[in-house]
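Data deposition worksheet. Section B asks for the primary sequence of the deposited chain exactly as it was used as input, without tags or linkers unless they were present during the calculation. Section C holds the resulting structure in token form. Section D is free text for depositor observations; keep each observation to a single sentence. Incomplete worksheets are returned to the depositor.
Section A, Depositor: J.P.
Section B:
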Amino acid sequence: MGLDMYAYTLPKDVDRPCVDFDLDDIPDEERRRLHYWRKHPNLHGWMAGLYFEKGGVDDEFNVNTVELTSADIDALERAIIDGTLPDTSGFFFGETTGEEREDDLEFIRKARAELAQGRAVAYYSWW
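Section C:
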């Protein structure tokens, strides 16, 4: 058990809500895993803040989705570079060590490429 975190790329859909949509409603051939993290609680905490900011209501923020816009990706990049991801903890979360930085920035690069192609990017986690 532990905090498993995923980013997916999927078709842009203006009718889809920006939080709490079901990834299983998107056909497998249109949904692709873009990135995976294991036990990176500070990044998860940042995503939780975004989820609530966008109207999410699940206090646990577990098995929920949040769509990331270009502005969200820019803000996340700033937090990664500035070292301001929020300290986050949880029973199954593990510990952010700082060694994740380059991997996080690789995600930023991949997410921007998908957004530039007119696709959407979503975060999902399970713990």
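Section D:
DSSP finds three helices and four strands in the chain.
The beta strands are 4-11, 32-38, 65-68, 119-126.
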